[in-house]
Amino acid sequence: MDALDLARWQFAITTVYHFLFVPITIGMSAVVAGFHTAWLRTRNPEWLRLAKFFGKLFTINFALGLVTGIVQEFQFGMNWSAYSRFVGDIFGAPLAFEALLAFFMESTFLGLWIFGWGRIPEKLHVMCIWLVHIGTVLSAYFILAANSFMQNPVGFSYDATKNRAVLTDFVAVLMNKVQLVTFPHVVAAAYMTGGAMVMGVALWKLMKGRVAEDRNMYRKGARVGAWVTLVASVAILITGDVQGKIMTEVQPMKMAAAEALYETEQPASFSAFTIGSLDGSQEKFAVTVPRVLSFLATGDFNGKVEGINDLRRELPAAIAEKNKEYGIPAEYISPSSYVPNIPGSYWSFRFMMGLGFFAMGAAALVLWVTRKGATPTSKWVLWVAVLAPFSPVFANSFGWIFTEIGRQPWLVYGVMTTQTGLSTAASVTEVAISLTVYTLLYAVLAVIEVKLYLDYIKKGAEPFEEPKQLADDDQLAFAY
């Protein structure tokens, strides 16, 4: 492997690992805020116990997600300094807003929520956890705005004197049409993840918990998590459909790669399962659904979907024509191939959908087996409790992988190839060392996360204690 391959592996490992924490943080913060609000409105002790129990799991995830996210910032300067110099003016603006506004908001109000039990008025206290959730959503918006610029660059011009892109319209970057369809899809996926996490843990405690009096509380938690997962699943289907059409318009090669569609078809079939050659260029066996790909790509069951071979011939001229208005040097827009990794794009797209449908089905099942106060006892339901939280987590990861693989060979679509964004000073040895260090560090963090989660899940929700007004030197009501 050369430095480019290693740098890409490092970015993939660190980004996918960090993204395991992000949807859990967004989704669980909303569910915990809902539990806390339910207690404030009903004074039912079970809601407060659920809020504190899942609040601790949320806090663990938030802390470890924060540590893994810091590495992302270092990477841009370490391995991708050419990219940072070229589009730093544009890419850095939403990242700065994320750090200064959204992350500041999340951290501040999370601290107030953790240490505010009995110290601040109840309504202000519950508002703190809602503001934490709003901060996580805002954080997602700014991060996705930066990524959407890489998928569909807008709001910039090329400065030939400085040899870099400069920001001309920040609002255009924030209102990028790719951003406007990606953001609701990602947030809905985060709600599904948070809901599934609460559903799985509560279902496990319901079935395996030793305290009979707690079963009604965990049943409530499992059903709330299941409803959140199910409603979010429907939102994902709707937003994903819209996103697919915009993706086809902006990056037609990505849609062709998602289907491994080499020849243009009208109408085009969607393949649910395909066995092909190792490079994905030849189909051996496939299970297809007629006209569905046409609808996913164009909104018309008879729509035309361009194949990889036609796009390979058309894209060089189309991208060169578009770049005439920018005047970007040819070295940035001349990839050796316009085709991404086909097997990777095809299967990551299907794993994303398949795991999402599993979570959706699991939520419907949990609602059924816990109806009318029932406590399920079957071992296969117990396996649902174990697998359900992981399915949307990995569905998110495969969605992220598909988004990034399908954009290749572009770092910024049509403006800068991945190869030209690599740091010129990064040697193979240096990238290999940092890749090894980060991978080992992340493995240690994974062990810590799992250990803390298992310990707190085993302990379960603490007994109810009415929050009381505390003096400054009283013991904290919510601390580790």
From TrEMBL:
It is a multi-pass membrane protein. GO terms for biological process: aerobic electron transport chain. Keywords: Cell membrane, Electron transport, Heme, Iron, Membrane, Metal-binding, Transmembrane, Transmembrane helix, Transport. InterPro entries: Cyt-d_ubiquinol_oxidase_su_1. Its main location: membrane. It is found in: Cell membrane. It holds the Pfam family Cyt_bd_oxida_I. The keyword Methyltransferase does not apply. The chain crosses the membrane at residues 20-41, 53-71, 91-115, 127-150, 183-204, 224-243, 347-368, 380-402, 422-448. The keyword Cytoplasm does not apply. GO terms for cellular component: cytochrome complex; plasma membrane. GO terms for molecular function: electron transfer activity; heme binding; metal ion binding; oxidoreductase activity, acting on diphenols and related substances as donors, oxygen as acceptor. Belongs to the cytochrome ubiquinol oxidase subunit 1 family. This is Cytochrome bd-I ubiquinol oxidase subunit 1 apoprotein. It comes from Calidifontibacter indicus.
